[in-house]
Automatic annotation (TrEMBL):
Domain NADH:flavin oxidoreductase/NADH oxidase N-terminal residues, every copy: 396-732
Annotated FAD-binding domain residues: 5-321
GO-annotated molecular function: FAD binding; FMN binding; NADP binding; NADPH dehydrogenase activity
Source species: Billgrantia montanilacus
Cited InterPro entries: Aldolase_TIM, FAD-bd, FAD/NAD-bd_sf, OxRdtase_FMN_N, YqjM-like
Name the UniProt record assigns to this protein: Bifunctional salicylyl-CoA 5-hydroxylase/oxidoreductase
One Pfam family per UniProt: FAD_binding_3
Gene3D superfamilies named among the record's database cross-references: 3.30.9.20, Aldolase class I, FAD/NAD(P)-binding domain
Amino acid sequence: MRIACLGGGPAGLYFAISMKLHDPSHEIVVLERNRPDDTFGWGVVLSDETLDNLAANDTVSAARIREHFAYWDDIAVIHDGVKTVSTGHGFCGIGRHKLLVLLQQRARELGIELRFESDIPEARIDELSREFDLVLAADGLNSRTRQHYASHFQPDIDVRACKFVWLGTHQTFNDAFTFIFEKTEHGWVWAHAYQFDADTATFIVECSEATWQAFGFGEMSQQESIAVCERIFARHLGGHALMTNAHHIRGSAWINFPRVLCERWSVDNVVLMGDAAATAHFSIGSGTKLALESAIALAAYLHSEPDMASAFSRYEEERRTEVLRLQSAARNSTEWFEQVERYLDLDPVQFNYSLLTRSQRISHENLRLRDPAWLESAERWFQAQAGNPESDRAPMFAPFTLRGMTLSNRIVVSPMAQYKAVDGRPTDWHFVHYAERAKGGAGLVYIEMTCVSPEGRITPGCPGFYAPEHEVAWKQLCDFVHAETPAKLCAQIGHSGPKGSTQLGWQEMDAPLPEGNWPILAASAVPWSERNQIPKAMDRADMDRVREEFVAAATMADRAGFDMIEVHAAHGYLLSSFITPLTNRREDEYGGSLENRMRYPLEVIRAVRQAWPDHKPLSVRISANDWVGDEGVIPDEAVAIARLLQAAEVDIVDVSAGQTSTRARPVYGRMFQTPFSDRIRNETGIATMAVGNIYQADHVNSILMAGRADLVCLARPHLADPYWTLHAAAGLGDSQCDWPQPYGPGRDQLQRLAERGEGWT
């Protein structure tokens, strides 16, 4: 084939090399707009895995690149005057200029034509696609090719919030990849610093838009901007200057990072690669990795597939998965830095852990593999903060106290509807179900949403707190759990609102009953869906009656023996219907602004708090994101909601999301709702519970150790395994959990199997 590579960066050069290695008869020309010695970055970071991939593809260039690598194993975090170092991270860096020179040399050896100072205007791209069999568009972040075929590629460009500038220095930071956080008169400024050759390091300076504006960086020249950065980081630079190689850019050279993702990567014989196709934020250092590994993949498919279209399809299918995986990690990392000021008051131990695990690529147990000594010291710190200074157990096994209730660990069995009640009365099913989970080792066990009135039930199978026989059944459960286990019990009380009078969960969820429907209430006469009945918009008499039903339910839960109570104000039920503007259309003092929409829920919550004993904690569950954009509750508003709950003497917020509208479009993933808990906890100071696709002990420990929540709720895992906590403890080598005495032989066998790396089936 005759091939034109637009762009002489790592992607274009390495693709050309890879194609020549597959078939030396290819005629390849690389067209680069800059001169051969120009470079506008400093160092790039690669992993050992990427080096191995390069070596398998081309031993010659891989060996030359490896000769020029700077290696380091440690990450250092300098925060609040404390330098924290962890090891086992395995990085290597090389100067971008040196990498390009080595790839240019290898390309020439293979007979590839390199044309520098060849600026290809957008008007010539169609001409090139006719002249060559294949056009590789590796023309960078501001790709003209991507722009030219924008209607086909459909690029999605998300400009991120922070400002950054890419600098270099002869202060090498040769002992670790170093993060430095400095508090200035205008706010926090931080640096990402790493060595890439014997006497030079990359030094990326980053800050929020507000801090950038306050410094006036936008009005400065590059040298003026650099002088300010040198002053900010003077005590870390050892007398060395900061340097720029972006003299071609006017002004201070600060930019916002654009995250690029294209719907398609090829059109006819033109294909995108590198930053032209997708970008990954510099805080995870994977842009060059993506480019090099994409070059290897496409070259291979062009020689293994029957035609170019098939090769492009395979390339995009394989590489898109990897790109999305890295972009997900990069998004997590980017957002952490964008929101870093909420974490800067954390203890240096917890701050360091939060930074190391920010992308979710490094988990708790992965960190143990990398640096067991540091993680063990961090776990001891966490236990000490929990009042357990002699313990070295994992965070999930730290005690937690709210008012007069102390939990033996941080695991919560989430409320999960069973739909097995008869006229609101819990049955033997409920007793067995909840007793088993209490025996399973969790610190706190919820009962499902228990309704404050017959009309407040979601389904005919939902339990209640409104008849004497309900109290008798719940008291039997509480007495058993308190006598036989260390678990505490939480009663979640609620009113179904517009989602009431519907079918059982395993029938048709949230659909009206075929017959026998009862009248329902809501903030406004807005049905859950077109099929559901229109609820009555509550008047003042309805509000007074329902408030007193909540109070009566709370009083009954106290008499039954529950240790904690939660008011359900999420998921589109009655109180939630007031909070979200999607269903609150009221024009009185209970509608409109957030303060008005919260007025009635807070009235109920304050009444419950007054009726509930002072020594017992009160929780409220909220939906922190309606998942419909600005039309509904967004995370910013969830923080304001949490502050109002805090003022109403709520002790902990159970942070869920969604289920408030059929229009919701959640973004799922591991621990997908935890960021909402994280934000509320670290911006307001109120305790939180995290919930949502959390299913491994690793998830739990990572959430707790990073300070993203105080308690962690697991729902489906406890349906599959009532003894999840005890089994997780055995898997972690922890033998200190309380097992029911009759189950001792099973505990002993499980622990022996776990020690041998086995399990049971």
